[in-house]
Write a structure and sequence with these properties.
- By secondary structure, this protein is an alpha+beta fold.
- It has helices spanning about 5-10, 20-35, 60-80, 130-145, 175-200, 205-210, 215-220, 225-240, 260-290, 310-320, 335-345, 350-355, 380-385, and strands at about 80-90, 100-110, 110-115, 155-160, 170-175.
- Helix content is about 45%, strand content about 10%.
- The chain has a 5-stranded mixed sheet.
- Helix 2 packs across helix 3 (about 60-80).
- It is globular, with a radius of gyration of 26 Å.
- The two termini are about 50 Å apart.
Length: about 400
């Protein structure tokens, strides 16, 4: 929706999946089986994915169970009808293309609950007007219009237990009328344009509808080949480093203190995408060099890894002759390490283990800049504190 031209570029890229995405898919599979069979997540502890890459360990059990508890709480409270991993699609000519698989749907009189299980820990997913969940909701209303008519309200639930920025279970509600209006006026036109561009042979027309942005670029597999994103990176370089960019007319500013607040705000919006792009370029250069291809101006060099004992038993004897305890830590283990030890050796989960160590823990509070859509309340700056003094 946010970048109609990306569908064409996406189709030109090889179909690959990151380890994080593959782990999420496995967690979804476990969750679906638990919901279907009325099991708890612990029933699958120790089960290994088909490719052998992932195992249902204690962490996955705990996090999948958070999702199961959320779905079952709503289904039990409403007495609704639960559908798991259900394919839903928009009606009409777009139906074959505009579809998705909803993680869980609960239908109760006049209400539809849509659950989206997010296993990722790196990117916080906001529940408010979440476009993916809204598409699932609108498509579910269309798909189940015959068996479940009269939906008046839609509750969209994001369950993201591994990200600790906010509550693991977050809900946003919209009326069915407003959701369908959004689908008709915003979603479907964007989908039609994307599908049209996806079959278009006019490259210039496709590139005209490429719109870089943090949300749409984060998981786009064409992000590192996208010409619009590359142009955006070069424009930022022009702004910050006074680098010449053909055809780009911008005010050249190198001195950071002289940057306007507006320029700083604009750069802060773009920098995460710049950093992601730079990381991808570095990884590609490293891959080429390791494959024997010359990268002009750079070379592969040998590096020394971390030092480790060749024989830990022999090392322990050697350390004892020096009067050192071979197993004594250099300092008290970290709080995070202690929590993991508690979880491994007891029946405590992460929440109760955190509560157990809390009386002995302190945190040094601070402040940092965050986007306005961050769910945390705005802090008071030092300047604001002393402004009335």
């Amino acid at each position: 929706m946010r970048c109609p031209g990306s569908l064409k570029l996406h189709g030109e890229q090889p179909d690959t999946s990151s380890p994080a995405a593959a782990e999420g898919t496995f967690a979804h599979l476990v969750a679906a089986k638990c919901l279907d069979k009325l099991f708890s997540a612990s029933r699958y502890r120790g089960v290994v994915s088909a490719d052998g890459a992932f195992t249902v360990d204690d962490e996955m059990v705990e996090n999948v169970q958070v999702y199961l508890d959320a779905v079952r709480a709503v289904a039990t409270f409403t007495g609704g009808e639960l559908h798991v991993e259900k394919r839903v699609a928009m009606a009409g000519v777009l139906a074959p293309s505009l579809w998705g698989t909803a993680d869980a749907l609960v239908f109760s009189p006049g209400v539809l609950d849509v659950f989206d299980f997010k296993y990722g820990a790196g990117v916080y997913v906001d529940e408010k007007a979440n476009e993916q969940a809204m598409i699932y909701g609108a498509a579910a209303i269309v798909t189940f219009i015959q068996s479940h008519p009269g939906i008046k309200r839609v509750r969209l639930h994001i369950v993201q237990p591994r990200h600790h920025r906010g509550p693991a279970w977050r809900t946003w509600e919209i009326t069915a009328a407003d959701l369908c209006k959004w689908a008709d006026e915003e979603c479907l036109p964007a989908a039609r344009l994307a599908l049209d561009l996806g079959t278009s042979g006019v490259r210039a027309r496709v590139e005209e509808h490429l719109v870089p942005g943090e949300k749409q670029c984060t998981f786009c597999n064409a992000a590192n080949t996208c010409p619009a994103r590359k142009a955006e990176m070069l424009t930022v370089a022009q702004d910050v480093f006074d680098a010449p960019v053909a055809g780009v007319a911008v005010e050249k500013t190198i001195d950071v203190p002289s940057l306007s607040v507006e320029s700083i705000a604009q750069m802060l919006q773009i920098f995460p995408r710049v950093e992601s792009y730079i990381k991808a370029v570095r990884e590609r250069a490293d891959e080429l060099a390791h494959n024997g291809q010359d990268v002009p101006g750079f070379k592969l060099v040998d590096t020394l890894g971390d030092r480790k004992w060749k024989d830990e038993q022999a090392a322990a004897g050697f350390l004892a002759t020096l009067g050192l305890d071979p197993v004594a830590p250099a300092k008290t283990v970290s709080v995070a390490a202690a929590v993991k030890v508690i979880m491994a050796g007891t029946k405590h989960n992460k929440k109760t283990a955190d509560e157990l160590v809390a009386p002995m823990v302190t945190r040094k509070a601070g402040k940092k800049l965050a986007p306005n859509d961050d769910t945390r309340p705005a802090a008071i700056s030092a300047a604001d504190v002393f402004s009335d003094c």
